[in-house]
Write a structure and sequence with these properties.
alpha+beta; about 25% helix; two-stranded antiparallel sheet
Length: about 130
């Protein structure tokens, strides 16, 4: 499996994402949206960074269970209930991403939403990966 990240010089330099990702491989893994739910189904964390760390960890746990690793992520979408808060915390969220998932960034988007399934959830992350 190979993922190729494309960041053309004609576009704004990406920070924490890739503009385009092409993939070759034989298996797609579609990852359901993950929030900061613990094993008992309770939302944990009071702040966006706390919830982001747990949600990303949950996404990576599901990916590993399917036989993948963070470097296999081709596309990730982040749903945030407060995009301004997400932007304010972007440096810390970037540090969390790099610590848990490394620097092989997938194509990404952040989408503002009024609320998520669990009312206390501030962020949800889904995506897909390509495996050999």
């Amino acid at each position: 499996m190979s993922l190729y990240r494309h960041n053309p010089a004609d576009l704004s330099p990406p920070a924490g994402f890739s503009h385009a990702v092409t993939a070759t491989g034989s298996q797609l893994v579609f990852l359901a949206g993950q929030t900061s739910l613990d094993r008992d189904g309770k939302v944990t964390g009071e702040t966006l960074p706390e919830q982001f760390e747990t949600a990303l960890g949950n996404l990576l746990t599901a990916l590993r269970a399917a036989g993948g690793s963070p470097a296999d992520l081709a596309r990730v979408t982040v749903y945030a209930t407060d995009v301004a808060d997400y932007r304010r915390n972007s440096a810390e969220l970037g540090r969390i991403w790099r610590r848990l998932a490394g620097r092989d960034y997938p194509a990404m988007a952040v989408i503002g939403t009024v609320r998520l399934w669990d009312e206390q959830a501030l962020v949800e992350i889904d995506g897909f990966a390509v495996l050999e």
